[in-house]
Amino acid sequence: MAATFTWDRLRLFSCLAVISMAKAQNPDQFIYTNGFRDANLQLDGSAEIRSNGLLQLTTTSRLLTAHAFYPSPINFNTSSSSAPSLSFSTNFVFAMVPQSEEASGHGVAFVISQSTDFSDADAVQYLGLVNESTNGNPSNHFIAVEFDTIFSLGTDTIDGNHVGIDLNGVISNQSIASAYFSNEEGKNISLDLKNGLPIQVWIDYDGQQQLLNVTLAPENSPKPNQPLLSASIDLSDILMATMYVGFSAATGSIESCSQYIMGWSFNRSGQAQSLEMSQLPKLPKNGGGRNTVRLISIIAAVLLLLIIIGAAYAYWRKKYEEVLEDWEKEYGPHRFSYKTLYIATKGFKDKQLLGSGGFGKVYKGTLPYTNEQIAVKKVSHESSQGMKEFVSEIVSMGRLRHKNLVRLLGYCRRKKELLLIYELMENGSLDKFLFSDDKPTLNWFQRFQIIRGVATALLYLHEEGEQVVLHRDIKASNVLLDSELNGRLGDFGLARLYDRDSDPQTTRLVGTLGYMDPELTRTGRATKAADVFALGAFLLEVACGRKPFAPHGPPEEISLVDLVERCFKRGAIVDAVDPRLQGNYVVKEMERVLKLGLLCSNTEPDLRPTIKEVVQYLEGNVSLPDIPIDSRSQKIPSSILETFGRSIEINTSMTNSIASDSVVSLSSLLGNGLSLNSLSSADSVLRIGN
Ligand SMILES: *[C@@H]1O[C@H](CO)[C@@H](O)[C@H](O)[C@H]1NC(C)=O
Ligand SMILES: *[C@@H]1O[C@H](CO)[C@@H](O)[C@H](O)[C@H]1NC(C)=O
Ligand SMILES: *[C@@H]1O[C@H](CO)[C@@H](O)[C@H](O)[C@H]1NC(C)=O
Ligand SMILES: *[C@@H]1O[C@H](CO)[C@@H](O)[C@H](O)[C@H]1NC(C)=O
Ligand SMILES: *[C@@H]1O[C@H](CO)[C@@H](O)[C@H](O)[C@H]1NC(C)=O
Ligand SMILES: *[C@@H]1O[C@H](CO)[C@@H](O)[C@H](O)[C@H]1NC(C)=O
Fold first, then answer.
1. For the whole model, what pTM was predicted?
2. 320-422 domain in CATH 2.30.42.60?
C-alpha cells in the first residue's frame, strides 16, 4: 500500500517536474533533480550541500577526500522477490571545475559499496576509496565507475582523462579515454572531464547479461545511442544483499578541481529517469573554476578595455585641456585652442624649441590649414589673480601694430600656463648674432638699422599708441630679426604678468641686470625713463658686441657702460667698438650711438633723453648734447647692491648665477652672500630675468 502510494506520488511529482527528493521508504529508486537540500545524504570529508542544493564534493584544496551516500542501503538480495536481479540504472550530472587551466582532479567516482566507512582511504590516486594496503582487497565489496583526470602510475593504464570500472580497488578492470557518441554526427567525440561544465553520465547494468554500460554526454545532449564503455562484468561476488550507493572524490597533491554533483537518479526496477538539466542547481559563478576564470578574464578584458578607453579619453581631455572663462568670450578671435597649438608645435616637442628664457620656453610652430609660422611662448603662472586684466592687456597689445614690433597674434590659457602666440621671426633673437659665433657677424649698416628700428618701436609704445606701454625688458635677446634682418621688439608688456601674480606686499622687480635702471631697484616703479636706460645698454651692446654686464671679464670690463665711459673720457670712444666690425662703420653714426648709450645710462632718470629725443638724435637731425662727465658716479653692480644697504665684492659664484640667462631669484642672491637682514627693504624681492 505504502509503496503504491509513494509510487503514485512520485509520478505525480515527476509530471509536475518539481521532484527534488525521492522517498526513503522506497529504497530501490530515487531522483534528485532539484538539488540535495532535503536529501539527508550521508556526507563525510569535504562534502557539503551548498545553499542552492548543489552537492560539492571537494573544493580546489589539496589532498581532500569526500563521500556522499544515499542515506539508506539499497536492496541487492536476489533471493528476495522485490529484487530478482542485480540490474540497476543510474543517471547523474557532475562537474569538475579546475582552479586554473592546467589544474585537475583527482577525480570523481560513482560507488556501490557494502560500507560507507572510508575513513582509512587515501586521496590522490586512491580516490578516497582505498589505501595502499587495502587496494584490490576482495573484502572491500565495492564497484566504482571512476572519472579520473590524472594518469597515475601504478593504477592507470591510460591517459589523464579517462573513465574506468574499478572492482574493490582503484586499478581499473576496464578503462577508456573520455568521449561520447554523438547521435547527430554518428561519431565519437572526446570529452574533457574537467572542462568545468556539467557532464551527464548514465550507468546501466544488466544483471542477466552481466553487461555494465557507461555512457557520457555533455550538458544539453540527449543520451547517446552508444555507450562509451560496455563491459562484461559479473558483479555477483561484489554486490551484497544490501549496498550503499553514492559518490567518492579526492583531490590531488597539487592544485586541483572543485568537484560537484548537480543531480542524480537511481533505479533498481528500470531505467533511471533522465534529469532535467534546466532544473538542476547552478554551478557557482565564482570560486576559481575555469568557467569562472573564463568569465573573469572576459570581464577583466572588458574592464581593461573600458579603462584604456577612459584613460585615453582622459589623456586626450587632459592633453588639450585649457582654461576658458566667460569673460574671455569677447577675445574669441585672439584665443587659440590648445589643441591647435599642440598640433602646430607637434606636441611641444623639444625639436620645436626656439629657446627658453626668463619668461618661459618658446616653441616654433606651423598653424594647421593656414600654414602660418608662429612662435608659441609658454609662460607659467601660479595664480589666476589679475589674469583677466592681464589678458585684456595682452589682447590690447595684440592691437598694437608697428613694423618693428613682433606681432602678438593671440593667447591660450591652461591651468598654471599661459601661452602667447607671436608671428615667427625667421632669424631669431639678436643676441645670437652679437654674442655667439654660430651666426654671421652683422655689419654696421645692419646694426644701425636694427637700433633705429627698436628705438622707433619704443617710441611707438611710449608715445604713439592709444595708451602708454612700458616695455620693461629691452635687451638684445628680446629683439628679434625678421627675414630681412629688421629688428623687431618682442615680449613687450609681459613683465606685467609678474606684477599681477605677485603678493601685493612684495614688489617684484622685473628686468635684467645691466639693463636695469638703478632707480627702479630703489623704487620698484617702472617708468619710461627705465625703458630708456635699458635702451642705452642695448645701444652699447649692439655697438660694442659685448654684454652690458660681463662678470667673467677682467674687472675693468665687467660693466660695459663703465668701459665705454672710460674710452669716452680718454677721447677715444670708438675704442669700445666691436672688433668684429674690423673698423668698417660710419664713424659719425657710431659715435652718436655710443654717446647716446652713455646719455641713456645716466643714473639720474631726469637727465636721460626721452625716447622721442633718442630717435631724433639717431636720425642725426638734432645734434647731441654734451655728456656730463662724472654723471655716472655709481657703477651698475654697486648701485644694485647698494639697494640692499651694503656693498660687497662680487665673488665668482655670485656673478655666475647673475650672469646665467635664467631668472635669478632672491634666494640665489641670498645664497651667495646676501642675507635677508641686509636688505634695506625687507619686502622687496629682486627678480632678475633675462
Ligand atoms: C535475502 O532475502 C531472503 C528472502 O526474503 C531472505 O531469506 C535472506 O535472509 C535475505 N538475505 C540477506 C543477506 O539479507
Ligand atoms: C588502510 O586501511 C586499513 C583499514 O581500512 C587500515 O587498517 C590500515 O591501517 C590502512 N593503511 C594505511 C597505510 O593507511
Ligand atoms: C575484470 O574483472 C573480471 C571479473 O569480473 C576478471 O575476470 C578480469 O580478469 C578483470 N580484468 C582485469 C584487467 O582486471
Ligand atoms: C566509439 O567508441 C566506442 C568505444 O571505444 C567504440 O566501441 C565504437 O565503435 C566507437 N564508435 C565510432 C562510431 O567510432
Ligand atoms: C549496453 O550497450 C549495449 C551495446 O550498445 C546494448 O546492446 C545493451 O542493450 C546495453 N545495455 C544496457 C543495460 O543498457
Ligand atoms: C524506475 O523505473 C521504472 C520503470 O521503468 C520507472 O517507472 C520509474 O519512473 C523509474 N524511477 C526512477 C526514479 O528512475
1. 0.49
2. no
